[in-house]
Design a protein that fits this description.
The chain has 12 helices and 8 strands. With 302 residues, it is α/β, with parallel strands linked by helices.
Length: 302
């Protein structure tokens, strides 16, 4: 996506194309930083529509996150998307971060409530001068500047939600507050994604909902991530990985195979794009991209 189109991140979707994007996290060590920029260089060759950069609990990675998005903005052709959460932050502090993002060249923000300090399942307590829900953060970002705003969506029920239908109502409220696209948590069944889009539409949510894909590269790691996000790691899939869990290379190859099948089903069903949770590694994602022939699939949007 050309930089002049940053104000409309959904533009490839509006042109009946497909957006391709990746998530990175800010590294904590010098070696991690070297590995991150090696990954960025490899992913840049795929011409992603954007790369999002995570934001630690209570702003714990704030400086590192801003450093990464500034590097993406100044040193690459990749439009950066900065994450922002409500956790442990006052309105004033959030406004400061939003302005810092703008100075770093960020024009798109992913607005998230964030997990409680104790992790998913813990009691959520907002900052005394802060925000309680992601739709409030969307409204705050809109009040500060002209940003494109994305939000999270949940194909499976949010750990704190009463029901899947309640999740859909929340997603619609985020759109009403000013969000223009959503990215889902990781999931493993295309049917869960399509049921989410149907529920969201029933509540008037028309913004693009981009499926979030995490290729399996480590069995215990993916099981932990799935549990944290409230996603089910289906037995039918888990059993295939457990059978080869002692061979890391075979696990990675199987992860690429299964993720590719999921992506094909999503794209065939009309998903507006794919967002890959890379864990700062590019090999599996690039393998999936090549298997899907996404360069050909997206030639009409370049």
């Amino acid at each position: 996506m050309p930089r002049e189109q940053l104000s409309s991140l959904a533009s490839p979707v509006e042109r009946n194309g497909r957006s391709i994007s990746f998530e990175l996290f800010p590294p904590a060590t010098e070696s991690g930083e070297i590995a991150l920029w090696d990954t960025v260089a490899e992913l840049e060759s795929l011409q992603p529509d954007f790369v999002s950069v995570t934001y630690g609990a209570s702003g714990s990675t704030q400086d590192r996150t801003i450093k990464v998005v500034r590097g993406l903005s100044e040193q690459t052709s990749i439009p950066p998307v900065g994450h922002l959460t409500c956790v442990g932050a006052s309105r004033e502090a959030l406004v400061d971060v939003i302005k810092e993002y703008a100075r770093a060249g960020v024009r798109t923000i992913l607005a998230l409530r964030g997990d409680p300090p104790g992790g998913p399942g813990g009691k959520w307590t907002p900052h005394p001068d802060g925000l309680n829900h992601a739709d409030e953060l969307v409204s705050l970002i809109r009040s500060v500047g002209n940003f494109t705003i994305g939000v999270a969506a949940f194909p499976e029920v949010h750990p704190e939600s009463a029901s899947l239908d309640a999740d859909a109502r929340v997603l619609a409220a985020k759109q009403d507050a000013g969000a223009s696209f959503a990215i889902t948590q990781l999931f493993f069944r295309a049917s869960d994604y399509f049921r989410l889009t149907e529920r969201a539409a029933e509540h008037g949510c028309s913004m693009p909902i981009i499926p979030g894909i995490m290729p399996v590269t480590n069995v215990s790691q993916i099981e932990r991530f799935a549990a944290m996000s409230g996603s089910e790691f289906p037995v039918s899939i888990a059993s295939r990985f457990h059978a080869v869990a002692d061979d890391a290379d075979v696990v990675r190859q199987l992860g690429v195979e299964i993720a590719t099948e999921l992506c094909e089903e999503l794209l065939d069903g009309g998903a507006p794009g794919l967002h890959f949770y890379t864990l700062n590694k590019s090999h599996s994602t690039i393998d999936i991209y090549q298997r899907l022939r996404l360069t050909t699939l997206r030639s009409d949007v370049r």
